[in-house]
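Q: Here's a chain of 151 amino acids. Please give me its 3D structure as tokens.
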Amino acid sequence: MNFQIKFDDRIMGISTKSGIETRYYGELMYFIFNKPYCDLYFTGNKKYCVEISLKDLIENLPSGAFFKCKRSAVVNLCYFKAFRKREREIEMEDGKKIELSKQNVPDFGKIFSNLPCISPPCRACYECDDHACENQIVFCRRKKNHQNAKR
């Protein structure tokens, strides 16, 4: 079954057969694009197949937390477990191995070496109304918009 998706602040609303399920952006571990559908993999072994362009999906997610591995795969940096440069792959927390394109290996290597210790915020952080909170820098779209407006 293919679902529709709507974006709002820190939440995605995914329409399913039984209604609308909401998921926080920070719970999205990775997604694989198979034109015109995108398979979204969330924590808790939740998977959705949505009809959306990769461009639209990437534009609606916080850019600092996600890395495009190749044309069809994007990972959330909070959920990668291992980076294997020689094999050109990233292993995710759920065991999924995602291939990196040759040109993205050096970019990921730089990101990996400069990556601060980021981890997905806890549920209380998602629901917090303090938009100046440093814990929300990566996942809060409103904070991202404020940063862009200051430039």
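Q: Can you summarize the key feature?
A: Residues 139-151 have pLDDT under 50 and may be disordered.
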